[in-house]
Amino acid sequence: ADSLYVSEYFSQSAQKLSFYSWYGNAKLFHFHVPEDTVLLRWLLQASRGKGPECTSMEITVHFRHGAPPVINPLGTRFPANATVRPSYNISITLSSAVQNTTFVNVTTPAAGDWFIAAHLPQAAGRIEVKGFSTPCPYMFQADMFVLRLTDMPVLEPGVPMPHTVVSPAKPLHVKVFVPKHTAAMRFQLSSCVTSEQRACTVRVLLGSITLPQSFQRSLTCTGSTNCSLALESPPWEKWLQIMVESLGTANASVSVEMLASFTVCRPGSTSSFLNFISLNQSQPAPHRPGAAGSSALAAAGAPQNTSGQRSSSCLQSQPVVREDLDVVSVRYRLLNGPSVPVSSLSPTLLLLNLNTGMDSGGSLVVSLLLNKTSVSLANATVAACVSAASPVLSLNATQNCSTAFSQGYPLSVSTSSAEAMLIVLYPQTDDWFLSLQLLCPRGQGACASAEGRVSVFAYLTPCFNDCGPYGQCSLLRRHGFLYAGCSCKAGWGGWSCTDDSKAQTVGTQNLATLLLTLSNLMFLPAIAVAVYRFYLVEASVYTYTMFFSTFYHACDQPGVAVLCIMDYDTLQYCDFLGSVVSIWVTILCMARLKKILKYVLFVLGTLLIAMSLQLDRRGVWNMMGPCLFALLIMVSAWVHHGAKRRHCYPSSWKRWVFYLLPGITLAFIAISVYAFMETNENYYYTHSIWHVLVACSVAFLLPPRDKHKKPWAWPQKLTCRYQICQNDREELYAVT
């Protein structure tokens, strides 16, 4: 009946989309789908602004169950040994319409965490000065509707259960719980009869849909004969949803009988519970700040030693402790040491617990190292499979590592290749298993008594290899969910900044550093002119700007040619402050104000500029505001001087032709380069040109010194004062 269904609605606030250059530009949405959900509908709403700067745009939306989607819009290379499966995505186009609404339906979705990531196309790479241009806002919002059953029938194992499919429009939903240590499941459907006593045709769907890949199993049953489906390694300790839909006429109901049976895998234990306790007491792990509790795959068999159980058990469990180190950082420690025994009779199983809900934002790294001296057969191979939800209990030479509803990741080590590594990017939230078994080329019976030892190292890290020397690992947050991403530099790209197809060479990096730092030496002529003309305060400001701009750009380099003499944020602030104050004092110096008024404006303007830069360091009005106000003061002062002298000020045409016009031209060219020509690729030489042009314009724009002042006249003045004092003494002595 309709009353058995409950609809629920979940919504999250809209986010402003960004052009894609790294994973941090993708906007993430995190939802939780409840159990017994039979229909999931996404409502995707995209919109853009109405200004002339807004053009047609294509928005890419990615979906994934269990973890954030692994995407690669730029087509870069992933690190070696990384497992990558393409994400499920759709495109939403915003053309003439300001808003676009799209629906995405998923029937019988898997319960748990679902993630949506949305982004714009690749970034153009142009460096835009904040305030010079108004970017078009592109907004995206995802809402989720779910329809779930409040009392879904439960199929008990081993008990036949009759059910009725009312009509093709109303399929039957049941569920069955898969216990731990289930090796196989068999589903059987029988006694399929329609209400018209005719042979029926039904379709059975086992499992739930997951994206980007779905392993839902389908079974079509025709007539009253029994039909069945065997599932190897179904997901442990989870509800398995089964949907039966009629393929007959619309008015006929269908009666069926369903039966589910399980094959249990009895595990053998490598150590008893008492040995487990004594091992913890004799080999305590060092305490780490913030370490959470541990979880272990404990032995579930008899408490005695299992040297005699290996032949009767289908797997050998190894106790593993989960050690939380930091956010999205976990280390797995084997209680019996890093080396585990591997035989050909049954697989060795390790549990890697990643079901806390906060572990899917990093990278799971599994490394295997074979002890060559431990393998008695030279041609033997240790096959391994890393899988989620359920382990692979039957390893063979084909190495497909598939379970009932998922695809695992294969690994292998041998005497010829003793090392193997696997990197799982954004592993889904679940229990992960590592299965190892010894394989012989001449059959398993040939190495029944052989045993190999493999060292296992497994850990969860925010960024693999910490993004390398040319990347920065950034911890991102969406509400309460934390995940990590690599921001690459110096032309490097890829998920972990390992793609060097567009990387800058070391010579290019050194050239960029030298250009951006040594171009500041062009302030030396401006400093010399200011000192020669007795503008000592202005010369001090130019020296300050030259010093901090040089070392800021030496610290700001993306490659290996980096030198930081102090904190990066401090260097950046001092560089921005010096640049704006240099423009401020230069224009006020050109105004020819009275000394007391000029120095008051120097100090007051510097304090206000320091305050505004602290509020918004990259705002264009932090530079344009003081410049316009200083220009207003200068123009007012020049008008006053011209009216007072009754002719144009400055009065000399040579001053205009050889100093002011070249200085103003250089300043306008510098502003144009800074505001409209800089990109990520040409930054190191266009910004160097900005340094040169600004420094040269300052040297041209500084006014000449006052006519009554003679520079470097201090020694003469001091000598004169001393001489006067000496003459006074001589006169007094003569009178006495």
UniProtKB/TrEMBL annotation:
Task: Identify the domain of life.
Answer: Eukaryota
Residues forming the EGF-like domain are 459-498
* Compositional bias per record (Polar residues), positions renumbered to this chain: 303-316
- Biased segments, Low complexity type: 290-302
Q: Where is this region: Disordered?
A: 285-316
SS bond list: C463-C473, C488-C497
Put simply, this protein is called: TMM8A factor
Write out the annotated subcellular location. Answer: Cell membrane
Its family remark reads: Belongs to the TMEM8 family.
Query: According to its record, what are the GO cellular component terms?
Result: plasma membrane
Give the chief site where it resides: membrane
The uppermost taxa in this organism's lineage are: Eukaryota, Metazoa, Chordata, Craniata, Vertebrata
Q: How does it sit in the membrane?
A: Multi-pass membrane protein
Q: Which residues cross the membrane?
A: 511-536, 596-615, 621-640, 656-677, 683-702
InterPro entries, from UniProt? EGF, NGX6/PGAP6/MYMK
Keyword terms, alphabetized: Cell membrane, Disulfide bond, EGF-like domain, Membrane, Transmembrane, Transmembrane helix
Q: Which gene encodes it?
A: Tmem8a
